[in-house]
Specification:
Elements (H helix, E strand, L loop, with lengths): L1 H23 L7 E2 L14 E5 L6 H5 L15 E2 L6 E9 L8 E8 L6 E8 L2 E8 L15 E8 L3 E9 L5 E2 L1 E4 L1 H36 L2 H21 L1 H6 L5 H25 L2 H4 L1 H20 L5 H27 L4 H24 L7 H4 L1 H80 L3 H33 L7 E4 H19 L1 E7 L6 E4 L1 H17 L4 E13 L4 E10 L23 H5 L5 H11 L3 E7 L3 E12 L2 H11 L10 E5 L3 H12 L4 E5 L2 H10 L4 E4 L8 H9 L10 E5 L4 H10 L3 E4 L4 H20 L1
Parallel strand pairs: 1-4, 13-15, 19-20, 19-21, 21-22, 22-23
Antiparallel strand pairs: 2-4, 3-10, 4-9, 5-8, 5-11, 6-7, 6-9, 12-14, 14-18, 15-16, 16-18, 17-18
Helix pairs in contact: 3-4, 3-12, 4-6, 4-12, 6-8, 6-9, 8-9, 9-10, 10-12, 12-13, 13-17, 14-15, 15-17, 18-23, 20-21
């Protein structure tokens, strides 16, 4: 009894284990009536599946029956195994029950996913293979039994048939295996709206491509180029994903499928980022985001290159990560810019959001989270089509904004041009008036010079002759004052004026001014008073020529607008610093003239302006005197102030810094004033001048001081004279025929040591600051501008000959 009980218990345990094993494994599939498939044509639940990890099983292995219990049961959801190196077998059994009047039917079994590398389809009847197709997107398209962008297999049933269907799937891409079963008529009916939608989608892409290509050809805006490249990229992606590209464009080149998808994904990211970057003007609006976007673009380009080298599965998985990053960055950028109420950014956000919604809806449908219908199945196509259209609207909006800004800029330019034209007309009018004023002002003293000289030539009386000569001298000096103002104004306008630093005596400047303006003041019965306080040093250091111009222009201006009364000139100083030997020189000029209205006092320092435009003729002058004074003081770090009351007179006060005398400067001034007694014989002066009249004038001036004169008409002749005579000093003109003064000076300096310290003083009509600098650079010691002041010429000759003597003896 015990033995029997033991065996009974053992049999019971064995039966329980067998029952458990049978429940865990999928039961052999029952035959599903082929004519009773669900109305949605989904057949996922009818197919059991087996994972072949080594991808080594064959159809013969399965037909032996040893693997039947290893199949897992199918489900209504689409079988999705992600990225796997395994092969998967699908198996189901279908029957065609007997029905009256129906003896034969055809059914289409479809795998609705085009990116499967290898799809082997087997039809088994009574344990034998009666139908077999080996296809996939890694094989030529003609291996497919039906020309269809996905995988479609026809299966024939006769009444009473029972057939097993095995499908082997293997792929480096996503292993997604949606199985559907159709009648031929239902299949073709279902394809019509699908084909219509796809045709409409690609038609929209083509239309947008051609339209914006035309706009790019006319506008040459890179935004259109990025948009066109984006359309091409998304079209390539859709052609590869849908299988239309393999069906119609490269049916015999399955390798294209391998690299086109990763390349198109990278291209989509690159060009949509570049497009958004330019449309949203990130370079200006957000430099940080602009930098980040550029980095992502570079990474996408690197990804596109490496996709040609790395395994497909690795590339796709990496690109999925990058795509998520790109989507997040684009969404953040568009939201951020939209919050700034930028209209193009709001449109860009709408376009990108629509695209993302379409992509997510398709993904949710593929995962079974959304019901399968026309809208969810085609959500990505609809979303991307809307995005492409909205992006085109963005370009149109941007073009409108650019044209609007261009029109506004053109209007501004037109207005500015009109103002410029008005200004040019005013400038031309002012120029014409100025030229007329120059003609009048220069002709007036010239008439005085020529008239007095004519009277002097016919006058027998010596006293009358002196009067005419004095008048001629004053007229000529007044003309030089006008010419100097013109030259200074020209230099100031060009920015080439250079200040010189040299000693001068302020008392001598006052004496020259009194002599220059005494006759004019006497004619107008104006008393000219000058005052120099005892604190102001007599010898100062600065640009004496420019200081004299400021001084004379202000006095001339005061005389011009004063009819009676007096003009008071006061010179003082302030801020004396004995350590640095610097001070601020102040001189003021007060008159009892017509005065200036307060609202016009700011205009008198402008070029060609006086307080009243009619004054140019009533009071004379070029209209640039005070503007020259103001510009010179600005150059000298000085200031000028004007206080005036109409009908009572004006007071101008000038302040500028300068150095005052030290022992060395005082000795230089004294040395220039008196000729030392050590010159026993008269100095021999070589005058190099091509103009006979100027030669005569210079010889006459020098003869008064007892100099011996040697003349030369050009530089070549001067070199010969130097060889024949012991010359003490050379007076050199600059512009001469044969050899000018600059070349002559250089040759003299390159001669033997006898002429190394020979003083050469430029005596030229070139009166600009650059001319003085050029003379000094050529090797000349000093510079004197024509017309020549006899006292200044004598002082310079004495100073430089004494200096040369000291160098020889030292």
């Amino acid at each position: 009894m015990l033995k029997l009980g033991y065996f009974a218990k053992s049999n019971l345990v064995f039966m329980l284990l067998l029952l458990l094993t049978t429940r865990i494994s999928a039961a052999a599939p029952q035959a599903v009536p082929i004519n009773r498939i669900a109305a949605d044509h989904s057949a996922n639940q009818y197919f059991n599946y087996l994972e072949d990890e080594n991808a080594s099983l064959t159809i013969d292995d399965l037909l032996q029956g040893s693997y039947q219990d290893m199949f897992a049961s199918g489900a209504a959801e689409v079988l999705n195994k992600g990225f796997s190196q395994s092969a998967f077998w699908l198996h189901s059994r279908f029957s065609f029950p007997e029905q009256p009047d129906i003896y034969h039917i055809t059914r289409y079994v479809s795998l609705e996913y085009s990116l499967l590398d290898s799809v082997n389809f087997y039809v088994i009847e009574n344990g034998e293979v009666t139908g077999k197709w080996l296809t996939g997107d890694s094989r030529p398209f003609n291996t497919r039994p039906v020309d269809y962008s996905r995988f479609l297999f026809p299966v024939e049933f006769n009444r009473g048939d029972i057939k097993d269907i095995y499908i082997r799937v293997q792929s480096t891409s996503l292993l997604r295996m949606p199985v559907t079963i159709w009648t031929p008529s239902e299949f073709h009916d279902a394809q019509r709206p699908k084909l219509l939608l796809d045709g409409l989608y690609f038609g929209i892409l083509l239309l947008m491509l051609c339209y914006n290509l035309f706009l790019y050809a006319t506008a040459r805006d890179a935004s259109y180029l990025y948009y066109i490249a984006y359309i091409l990229s998304i079209a390539a992606f859709q052609l590869a994903m849908s299988g239309y590209g393999f069906e119609y464009l490269w049916p015999n080149t399955p390798q294209v499928n391998e690299f086109l998808i990763p390349l198109s994904i990278c291209a989509i990211s690159i060009f949509v980022l570049a497009f958004g970057q330019r449309i949203l003007d990130l370079r200006k609006q957000s430099p940080l985001l602009y930098f980040i976007v550029n980095i992502i673009i570079v990474l996408e380009i690197a990804g596109a290159i490496t996709s040609l080298l790395l395994p497909y599965a690795v590339v796709i998985q990496t690109l999925i990560v990058f795509t998520v990053i790109v989507a997040a960055v684009k969404l953040y950028i568009s939201i951020q810019q939209s919050l700034r109420r930028i209209h193009t950014a709001q449109l860009f956000l709408f376009a990108w959001f629509t695209f993302l919604c379409g992509a997510m809806a398709l993904a949710a449908t593929s995962m079974g989270w959304l019901p399968v219908n026309f809208l969810t199945t085609n959500s990505f196509i609809i979303g991307s089509a809307v995005e492409v259209i909205v992006l085109s609207f963005i370009l149109a909006e941007r073009s409108h904004q650019i044209n609007k800004a261009k029109a506004f800029a053109e209007k501004q330019a037109k207005d500015a041009l009109q103002l410029m034209n008005d200004s040019l007309r005013e400038t031309n009018r002012t120029k014409d008036e100025f030229l007329a004023t120059i003609s009048h002002e220069l002709r007036t003293p010239m008439n005085g010079v020529l008239g007095c000289l004519q009277h002097a030539s016919q006058c027998p009386d010596q006293s009358s002759l002196d009067t005419y000569l004095n008048h001629a001298d004053r007229s000529a000096r007044h003309m030089m004052l006008l010419i100097d103002s013109l030259l200074t104004y020209t230099e100031l306008q060009s920015g080439n004026l250079q200040l010189q630093q040299e000693p001068f005596r302020i008392g001598e400047m006052l004496d020259k001014a009194r002599l220059l303006f005494a006759d004019t003041c006497a004619k107008k019965e104006i008393r000219l008073r000058m005052s120099l306080d005892s604190v102001t040093p007599h010898t100062l250091f600065g640009d004496s020529y420019r200081v004299g111009q400021i001084f004379n222009n202000l006095i001339d201006n005061a005389i011009k607008f004063t009819h009676r009364g007096e003009i008071l000139i006061e010179i003082t100083c302030a801020a004396i610093d004995h350590e640095s030997q610097s001070l601020k020189l102040i001189f003021s000029i007060s008159d009892t003239g017509i005065g200036i209205e307060p609202e016009k006092q700011s205009q008198i320092f402008e070029s060609f302006r006086q307080a009243d435009a009619t004054n140019n003729r009533g009071y004379g002058g070029l209209g640039i005197g005070l503007s020259v004074v103001k510009a010179l003081l600005d150059k000298m770090d000085g200031t000028i102030e004007c206080r005036s009351n109409p009908g009572q007179g004006s007071r101008f006060e000038v302040t500028f810094p300068c150095l005052f005398q030290n022992q060395d400067l005082t000795s230089r001034i004294d040395e220039q004033a008196h000729q030392p007694s050590r010159h026993a014989a008269p100095l021999q002066v070589l005058v190099v001048e091509d103009n006979p009249v100027n030669q005569l004038v210079i010889k006459s001036l020098l003869t008064r001081h007892g100099y011996t004169i040697v003349t030369a008409s050009n530089g070549a002749q001067a070199l010969l004279e130097l060889e024949q005579y012991a010359i003490d000093v050379v007076l050199m003109d600059c512009q001469m025929p044969i050899m000018d003064g600059f070349e002559t000076t250089e040759k003299i300096r390159n001669m033997d040591h006898r002429h190394a310290h020979l003083p050469i003083i430029a005596v030229t009509a070139n009166g600009m600051s650059d001319d003085r600098h050029r003379c000094i650079q050529a090797g000349m010691n000093d510079y004197l501008c024509k017309p020549i002041d006899a006292q200044v010429l004598h002082r310079k000759i004495v100073y430089w000959t004494n200096n040369a003597a000291r160098q020889k003896t030292g």
